[in-house]
Design brief:
Structural class: mainly beta
Radius of gyration: 33 Å
Mean pLDDT: 82
Distance between the termini: 73 Å
């Protein structure tokens, strides 16, 4: 990697009679280039300016569209024409060990146009290259080996550690400065320090005098139930508040040790001391807070944050066997970072107008009591069909009756019922097109024996692993063959579920339960009954009391105890599915009683 340190700029000073040497002209070029790179870094940053789309031409080749990018040193990387490559011909392919490879762009230079040099003959040489051509190169490396992009160390966030041990670290982060009367997001982060997944639960309440919850109070209850936290995959929960309308130079977010209970792999823990997180509420707009935080970052911090020569443009998912590989999928979303250009600010605003609701503040429910569970990967939207090519090695002199199997192939449609069919694929000459065309024979290949296709003749079968999202293909030869490899085209189709489910079938396995099914309250004391959703999406709820004189409860679930002691029942029902119901109980005692 080149020296990326920013030094004081120094340019030539010309005067009459000055003797100019090659070093002076090199200084001139270096000054102009370094000043341009400096402005690129400071004003635009690192990423793709335009183009550079990545596509697979076939199962083993890719194409990169023409385009422009800036690397972390501010150098322009220009791909003037579309580039096509066999993936195995890209630098770094031989070093890949996993199934996810990052395709990156890299700036390069090449000395070109050799010319006769007079002084070189004195040292035994005759030629020097007259020009330097700026170009690019492509590189592949495992996704895990990709150097991380470092964030600017801006003094924008305030982070405190709620709990910490050898297995788990729980932190809370909030902006160090909050705007008066504006919504603000805090993040509860749970990280796994170990090497195996950990089951984590937590119940706590955050109190703050300068932030307001949805119910108008200053206390937010948080409940995490049986979260599975994986190593190197932190769990995050958003907490929304609204700042008070008046400035508060010194404010706190507080979690008391007595109201916090943590559970790690079934073992209970508490906080050793009260948690305090400092921040301030200021009469400044959020945009001004952000500009101030970014602008206050020093030159040294900016320099340390951008030291990557590689520009990631795609993540390529591979299926590999002992003899070959196949491109399964190319992902660009979340990999390629685009630079927002001032020249297109008007176009950006016009296009953003189509998404106005998602740009408005307050989309999330501020101050809502939160109950979270581990994400369900099966809720992700999957495609309905997929196709690809697999090769089954046959060895030398394969004989009739022998059986051969492919390795396990992931079809990409996820878990569930999937139909997979395989056929024999081959290339043949097409006289009408005067080129080679691709053909696939599904079913009995002997029906096309008269055409003498270059395939093995045999019976095929497929075993689909429903719970693994994969399959294995098999061939039983019905003729001896000199071929050493069988090429199969596979097609997978997701089998849709029946849409005419009854209401009872739709509700099967779904339920709700109160986070705190029983609470002890003083007379006239209030409590919010939050709900956990099991095997279903959150929905609107209806709260009501089963007996008269049981107190009061709002449509949002805030219960106020009556003035007399007793045990009172609260019914909680899904508004659209009344059969899904749960109950909670309030034990009311006089606050003066022992």
């Amino acid at each position: 990697m080149e020296n990326n340190q920013i030094l004081s700029f120094e340019r030539n000073r010309y005067y009459i009679g000055k003797l100019l040497t090659s070093a002076d002209f090199q200084t001139e070029q270096s000054y102009v280039n370094q000043k341009r790179y400096f402005l690129n870094r400071m004003l635009y940053g690192e990423g793709v300016v335009c183009g550079l789309g990545v596509y697979n031409l076939d199962d083993q080749s890719i194409m990169v569209d023409s385009g422009v990018a800036l690397d972390s040193m501010g150098r322009e990387v220009v791909v003037s024409n579309s580039v096509m490559r066999k993936l195995s011909a890209v630098d770094g392919f031989e070093s890949l060990t996993g199934s996810r490879a990052m395709l990156c762009l890299k700036y390069s230079e090449e000395a070109v146009q050799p010319v006769y040099a007079v002084r070189e003959s004195e040292s035994g040489g005759d030629y020097q290259c007259n020009h330097i051509r700026e170009g690019f190169s492509l590189a592949l490396l495992d996704e895990d080996a990709m150097p991380p992009a470092q964030e600017l160390a801006a003094p924008f966030l305030s982070t405190g550690t709620l709990y910490e041990d050898s297995r788990i670290v729980v932190t809370v982060t909030i902006p160090a400065q909050v705007s008066c009367g504006k919504q603000v997001r805090a993040v509860l982060n749970v990280s796994n320090r170990g090497e195996i997944p950990v089951l984590f639960s937590m119940k706590t309440s955050f109190q703050t005098p300068s932030l307001v919850c949805r119910d108008g109070g200053h206390e937010l209850a948080v409940s995490l139930e049986q979260i599975k936290v994986f190593p190197d995959a932190p769990f995050e929960q958003e907490l929304w508040f609204t700042a008070i309308p008046n400035p508060a130079p010194e404010s706190l977010l507080i979690a008391s040790a007595g109201n916090t209970l943590l559970q790690i792999d079934g073992e209970d823990f508490g906080l050793p001391q009260k948690f305090l997180l400092h921040f301030s509420v200021e009469d400044v707009e959020p945009a001004d807070l952000i500009s101030r935080a970014i602008g206050s970052v020093s030159m040294e911090e900016r320099q340390m944050a951008g030291m990557r020569e590689l520009i990631p443009i795609a993540c390529i998912l591979l299926q590999r066997t002992k003899t070959t590989y196949m491109i399964d999928q190319i992902l660009e979303t979340g990999v390629k970072h685009y630079i927002r250009l001032p020249a297109f600010s008007d176009l950006h605003e016009r296009m953003a107008s189509w998404f106005t609701p998602s740009y408005q503040a307050g989309q999330a429910s501020a101050g809502q009591e939160l109950t979270s569970a581990a994400p369900d990967p099966e809720k992700n939207v999957s495609p309905i069909y997929a196709s690809g090519v697999c090769e089954i090695p046959l060895g030398i002199n394969a004989r009739r009756g022998q059986e051969f199997y492919s390795g396990e192939i992931v079809h990409g449609l996820g878990k569930g019922n999937v139909f997979v069919q395989v056929g024999f694929e081959y290339l043949s000459e097409d006289s009408r097109l005067n080129t080679e065309v691709r053909n696939t024979i599904y079913g009995d290949p002997f029906l096309f024996e008269s055409e003498n296709p270059p395939i093995v003749f045999g019976e095929t079968a497929v075993k689909v692993m429903t719970d693994r999202g994969s399959f294995v293909a098999a061939i039983r030869l019905e003729e001896d063959t000199p071929l050493t490899l069988a090429t199969l085209r596979w097609t997978a189709i997701r089998i849709p579920q029946a849409e005419n489910e009854t209401k009872l079938q739709k509700m099967a396995g779904k339920s709700i339960s109160a986070v705190q099914p029983t609470v002890v309250l003083s007379t006239r004391e209030s409590h919010y009954f939050s709900v956990k959703f099991h095997n279903m999406e959150p929905c609107s709820l209806t709260y009501d009391l089963t007996e008269k004189g049981s107190g009061e409860i709002t449509p949002d679930g805030i219960y106020t105890a009556p003035g007399k002691e007793g045990v009172y029942e609260i019914r909680i029902t899904c508004t659209d599915m009344p059969l899904i119901t749960t109950y909670a109980y309030a034990v009311v005692k006089n606050k003066n009683a022992e």
